[in-house]
Structures are given as structure tokens and as C-alpha cells.
Amino acid sequence: MVSESDQFNLLYSLSFTLFLFSHFILCYTFLHYFTKNKLVMTKVTVVGSGNWGSVAAKLIASNTLLLTNFNDEVKMWVFEETLPGGEKLTEVINQTNENVKYLPGIKLGKNVIADPNLENAVKDADMLVFVSPHQFMEGICKLLVGKIKAGAEGLSLIKGMEVKKEGPCMISTLISNQLGINCSVLMGANIANEIAMEKFSEATVGYSQHKEVADKWVQLFTTPYFIVTAVNDVEGVELCGTLKNIVAIAAGFVDGLEMGNNTKAAIMRLGLKEMMAFSKLLFPSVKDSTFFESCGVADLITTCMGGRNRKVAEAYARNGGKRSFEELEEELLKGQKLQVPK
């Protein structure tokens, strides 16, 4: 038998424990509200809303809700399109919390706000994530000149480069030069649909200065299923993301001509050597170790096995070169673009 005094002590202990727990929850809620609403929070905008852009917005939005130094809301600039039913893509994204055209079946997060107005989307943003097709970036940057918040930081997820008469121009350099902001890059073995389904993946942030900014990008993107690391080699990371797309075309030709896995493995090995040599020719500062990060050999393997360039190149070879890359791109990629230097 439990005595009345023991029962009283037990009830008292339970009541006191519940009292402390309820006050802890109250204090946590108050502090979270205070830090999210009273302090100056970092605002993030994603410039682009295709397959990878939508996945990037999903990753970021899941973290801004948890990180007290970020504003909850994530803006995503959408190039406005009219869907077959007559609805505007932006309106559907905001109503359904889903990019029904480029990432159907995946919820982005209720704190992702689609905006068709580029200038309005980037206004007041402290961190800008660029993830539009590289063919359009020069035009986008021209529209944004003078519209970016002073001191903003940029991050390019764009795998490509501009090829001009005066020589190749990296997308991060284009962004930095035209907008006057520091621009890091994020590259890796990142098939967007797999990350959207929260299958494990890795990525690499490349930076040239301000390690603390790179760490902030890592914090913004990292989740239990998406692990990000940073390396001080922005050119090396970005060139990995660019040049592997050329190797992937060769891998697609191998598949289309049914030359076998041994040939494909040789193409990938030789391609990696050429990537390293070409990168060092353009930028002697590029580090060998960068090619063994996710942005290097891992991304090369993924792209040569399942990337869009490989897919279109295979179809080109199977058709004996009788159908153009432009035609196959439109048919097979459903609005996405090949990743090749312009």
C-alpha cells in the first residue's frame, strides 16, 4: 500500500514537472518568436524555378523554418508560363505548394512564395541563389543591375559557362562582374528528382573568400539527406560542374552505339583527366583534391549514368545523327535545357 503522504509527494512531483515543462515550452516559443520577428533576419531568394531550382527552394525552405538567423519566407522567382488548363504557373505553385510542371508531386514547403516579378523577388534579399539555365543568365543579370541589395551574397547552382570571343567566362564571374556581389558556387552529384524524394546525396560549395559566408551556405542547404561541404576553390568546383556535361555527351554516344560498359568506363576515366588538365590550364590555382569531392568524380559518374546530356546524346546516336540536338532536347527534356557551354 502507498501511504497518503507518498501519494501526495508523487502528485506534487508530477505537477511540478508539468509546471516546469509548460514554462519551458512557453519560453522557447517566446524566444523563437522574438528572434524570428524582432531581429534582422537573413532573407533568401531563389532565382529560377525549374526542376533543380524547385528542389533548391525545398531544401532551403525546410531549413529557414529551423534556423533562427533566417527569415522563414523563401521567395522563388518564376518565369511565368500558362499551363494547358489556362492557369498561371505562379498562381498554381502558391495555391498548391507544388511546381506542377517541373517538379510534380513534391511539396515545396508552405514558406516558399513564387513571384513572377524578378525585381520584386530579389528586393531586400541578403542571399541570392541563382539556378536558371546558363543560356539566360546574362540577360537576367542585366535586368538585375542596380536592383540588388548592397552587401548581398550570391550562390550559383548553374552548371555551364559563357564562351565569348575573349575567352570562356564562368557563370559565377558573370554574376560577380555584372551585379557587383561575391558569388560562390554549389555543385555535386545532384539528380534533382532523387533529392526531391529525399534520397541521400552530397554537394560541394566552392568559395574564393569569406569562409564564414561559405559556412552559412552550407548551413542553409544541409539536411539529413543532403550533405554539403565547402572547399576554397570556386573555379575548380564550378569547372567540375561544367566540364562533366561534355564528358556525359560522349557517354551518351557510347550508350547509343551500344559500345558497352568498358568503353563507357574508359570515357569517364579519360574525361576526368581532361577535366583536370583543362581546368588547370584556365586556372592554375585549381586544386587536385577538388576533383575527388562530390562536385568532381561523383558528379561525373552520376551525369554519365543518368544526366540529361547523356540521355539526349544517346537518342542522337540511336537516330544516326538524323535528328538534331534541338529537336531531341525539346522532345525528351520537357522544357529543361541541355547543359553545354553557350
Automatic annotation (TrEMBL):
NAD(+) binds at residues 48-53, 79, 136, 192, 308, 337, 339. The chain crosses the membrane at residues 12-34. It is an enzyme of class 1 (oxidoreductase). It catalyses: sn-glycerol 3-phosphate + NAD(+) = dihydroxyacetone phosphate + NADH + H(+). Substrate binds at residues 159, 308-309. Its EC number is 1.1.1.8. The keyword Transmembrane applies. GO terms for cellular component: cytosol. Residues 233-336 form the Glycerol-3-phosphate dehydrogenase NAD-dependent C-terminal domain. SUPFAM superfamilies: 6-phosphogluconate dehydrogenase C-terminal domain-like, NAD(P)-binding Rossmann-fold domains. Keywords: Membrane, NAD, Oxidoreductase, Transmembrane, Transmembrane helix. One of its GO terms (molecular function) is protein homodimerization activity. One of its GO terms (biological process) is carbohydrate metabolic process. The active site is at residue 244. Residues 43-211 form the Glycerol-3-phosphate dehydrogenase NAD-dependent N-terminal domain. PANTHER family: GLYCEROL-3-PHOSPHATE DEHYDROGENASE, GLYCEROL-3-PHOSPHATE DEHYDROGENASE [NAD(+)]-RELATED. Belongs to the NAD-dependent glycerol-3-phosphate dehydrogenase family. NCBIfam families: glycerol3P_DH. This is Glycerol-3-phosphate dehydrogenase [NAD(+)]. It comes from Lupinus albus. The lineage of its organism: Eukaryota, Viridiplantae, Streptophyta, Embryophyta, Tracheophyta.
